[in-house]
Design goal:
Elements lengths: L1 H4 L7 H15 L15 E5 L2 E4 H15 L6 H19 L1 H6 L3 H23 L8 H10 L9 E9 L2 H12 L4 H8 L3 H4 L4 E6 L5 H8 L10 E3 L2 E11 L6 H30 L18
Antiparallel strand pairs: 1-2, 3-4, 3-6, 5-6
Helix pairs in contact: 2-4, 3-4, 7-12
């Protein structure tokens, strides 16, 4: 019953060209100048006597597959990627670009990128590679933290929605005399989606319906029928078909959640140990009195 339960790659050729051109500029470095050895099968192109190695194209092909979700590429796509590599080499070899490489701003940004790359690699070596999981750890975590994996209370409910209180009173009286809920829902309910199913809303939980509806349902026993409940959409008569009480979810159902939690705990522990070791071996001084003087630039 929507009214009751709800609160209210495809690349263009030019885009592909521009995308992979700049991807090449960002992700690849220009190889050292070298004369090709005639007949060298690993060299697939030359730009002003600078060789383009097959491995460089292979890396770009792998990135292309990851971005597009393709398992293989056509010969034309491979030629296009090779063309981007030759363009990149020509740009990087130009005197203007060589001059730009010497600018202080560029040197600083390259250094920042290099530092970020090295720090990421360092953390990976000292943190991520130490994270090894065993099934025993997962089951122990499950046993020790069962309170975290308790299911939410749900109620399988049905409803008959009426436009007026008079209509609702009439239907409620019919229910009291023993007429079937499903039949009356199909005959009188103005909520057509649920009416077609005999008033069934399916399992619902707190927060998915209006508070007054949930409060009325929680006051019922299985098979119980509510009094008339008014909402902005009309007058409702509710039935609690089945009550799903909170219970601990099975291990297999929450296994991935447990794995994430254990990995997170291990990562935090390994990171703290790494930081402690660094601080122990470093000559570290913190001048807290200067912190108040530091203001972010606008």
């Amino acid at each position: 019953m929507r009214k009751i339960t709800d609160k209210h790659h495809r690349f263009l050729p030019i885009s592909l060209s521009v995308f992979w051109l700049f991807l090449g500029l960002l992700l690849h470095t220009l190889p050292a100048t070298s004369e090709t050895a005639e007949g060298d099968a690993e060299i697939i192109a030359m730009v002003n006597h600078v060789s383009i190695d097959k491995s460089e194209l292979d890396r770009l092909i792998d990135q292309f597959k990851q971005r597009t979700g393709k398992e293989s590429i056509t010969l034309n796509e491979k030629k296009l990627l090779l063309k981007h590599l030759t363009i990149r080499h020509m740009i990087l070899q130009s005197p203007i670009v060589q001059a730009l490489k010497k600018e202080e701003y560029v040197i600083k940004k390259v250094a920042e990128f290099e530092n970020s790359l090295v720090i990421t690699r360092f953390i990976n070596e000292h943190v991520e590679r130490q994270i090894i999981l065993t099934k025993g750890e997962l089951t122990r975590y499950y046993q020790d933290h069962k309170s975290r994996f308790i299911s939410t209370m749900k109620i399988d409910a049905s409803v008959i929605l009426l436009r007026t209180q008079t209509d609702a009173a009439m239907v409620l009286e019919k229910l009291k005399t023993g007429e079937p809920f499903q039949g009356l829902a199909k005959q009188y309910s103005i909520d057509l989606p649920s009416a077609k199913k005999g008033g069934s809303l399916g399992p619902i939980k707190m927060g998915s319906v209006y508070p007054e509806v949930w409060e009325a349902l929680t006051g019922l026993t299985p098979g119980g029928i509510s009094q008339i409940i008014e909402t902005e959409y009309g007058y409702n008569i509710l039935r609690a078909n089945k009550i799903f009480t909170p219970e601990v979810k099975p291990f297999q159902e929450v296994k991935s959640e447990i794995r994430d939690a254990v990995v997170r705990d291990k990562r935090e522990k390994a990171y703290d140990e790494m930081v402690n070791e660094l601080e122990k071996n470093a000559d570290l001084k913190i001048f807290e009195s200067h912190l108040a003087e530091t203001e972010p630039r606008q």
